[in-house]
Amino acid sequence: MSPSRRFKDEVFEQFARIGKAVASPKRLELLDILCQGPRTVEVLADQACLSLANASQHLQVLRASRLIEAEKGGLYVTYRLAPGVEGFYLGLRGLAESRLAEVEATTRAFLAARGALEAVDAAEVLRRALSGAVTVLDVRPVEEFQAGHLPNARSVPLAELRARLTELPRDREVVAYCRGPYCVLAIEAVRVLREEGFTALRLDTGPPDWRAAGVALAAGP
Amino acid sequence: MSPSRRFKDEVFEQFARIGKAVASPKRLELLDILCQGPRTVEVLADQACLSLANASQHLQVLRASRLIEAEKGGLYVTYRLAPGVEGFYLGLRGLAESRLAEVEATTRAFLAARGALEAVDAAEVLRRALSGAVTVLDVRPVEEFQAGHLPNARSVPLAELRARLTELPRDREVVAYCRGPYCVLAIEAVRVLREEGFTALRLDTGPPDWRAAGVALAAGP
DNA sequence: TCAGTAATCAATAGATTACTTGATTATACG
DNA sequence: CGTATAATCAAGTAATCTATTGATTACTGA
Q1: B37–chain A nearest CA distance, Å
Q2: Which of B30, B85, B124, B183 would bridge B81 by S-S if both were Cys, CB 3.0 to 4.6 A apart?
Q3: Does residue B105 lie in a domain region?
């Protein structure tokens, strides 16, 4: 075999390490979760519905291909995305959305089943959310809100929403968001809000998308 | 299992179709080749050093994940990249380059073995090539040159280089390029040119990279 | 209609991968 | 020092993937 053939084989073998890392749905879900910020193994396993051992193994695969980094602090190991990986993941996701009709079909079917199909343009909802003309709700857990949120959003985790409805003005439209297009918190939040008589819309993007799009996010409480 | 868990599983399963498609070094090499333009199965098999049947199977995997499209014309089937795939591939390659030290190590070792290690900055070489101050050689086969090339490049396929050296002015620096950073044609061309007394440099990017960077390419003869 | 060529299909063996289970390591804390 | 907890390791099985081989299909042109 020629030296240049061997060279190419070696180089593409390396490229394929990245490909193999993202060849598993569960590893992609782990990356998706890590786009929200660093997490411990336990939390990742829980959110992705994996056994602890299985999650640990997937995380080690991702780590071996350098897509994530681990940091040990006391009893816990915290994993975080490596630089450049968020953009790559969003690119992969976007390619799947644009090339694989099944993604949209599945999403539509799921939304339809909960009566959440919207006729409103996503960019328009984001514009309204940024304009200050509507009440913007971040329905993720508080820690995630604090790690980064839309400038004029207020944190009302889904679990607390019903109890805190009195905080919300009834004469303004509400826009709710969560982690991104495939997170279900905001869908549920909009359902609750409408049930209670609010005019509510879902913003079907999340902090990772906005960061990639260059939207300035706020942090802290 | 909850409906939202099922929904997520289905969605990430779809995303993983893209991941699985790029989990094989040979499929990545096929995508790399297809970045240069549409090709028949035979040509792809030949360039990627695959048996015809094996190449066909890999192409069908890529096609099933919608990364490439096939068009049958007479006896030949021509495959081409689907929209958005070139950018995704370059993103994956870039991530591998930035995250996997082995890629650079392998490349450096290969270049060093042929005495082709350069101390010149890649962006600077491209600037010179675009400036018109140097002779720019496109050493790929003529068809590829015609499909798209740097504005002031001239086509001198590597196979013809020695025979056509008299066409080149000896008092100007020569910059040679080929398909991209992992194509070896330009490396060889620079070796030949230096052997013959020219001052020659290699431009280690190619048409796909320039398209992605927004450089206007010329087409035709 | 028949021969020749491009491409695909089908079947297979060998390698790789995913998930489970039970054991083990490392750290914190009483 | 011993116990509890987070995480990893190790081994085994089932499933999946890769490359090869030989057969088959689809089209061209004599």
Answers
A1: 19
A2: B85
A3: no
Q: Are B29 and A16 in contact (CB under 8 A)?
A: no
Q: Given CB atoms, is A170 within the 8 Å cutoff of chain B?
A: no
A-facing residues of B in 5-44 (CB < 8 A) are 5, 7-29, 32
CATH of the domain at A147: 3.40.250.10
**Positions of E strands within B1-85:** 39-40, 68-73, 76-81
Average pLDDT of adjacent 10-residue blocks, chain A of 221 residues: 92 97 98 96 95 96 97 93 97 97 95 81 87 93 93 94 94 94 94 93 94 92 79
Q: Is residue B73 located within the same domain as residue B117?
A: no
B47 CB and strand C closer than 7 A: no
Stretch (H or E) spanning A85: helix A85-99
Tens-digit pLDDT profile for residues B113-146: 987 777 678 888 999 988 888 999 999 999 999 9
| Neighbouring C-beta atoms of residue B46, cutoff 10 Å | 14
Helix (H) or strand (E) holding A136: strand A135-138
* Strand segments (E) across B118-196: 135-138, 153-155, 174-177
The domain spanning residue A40 has which CATH number? Answer: 1.10.10.10
Domain membership flag for residue A101: no
DSSP string computed for A160-198: HHGGGGGGS-TTS-EEEE-SSTT--HHHHHHHHHHHTT-
Q: For chain B, what is the domain count?
A: 2
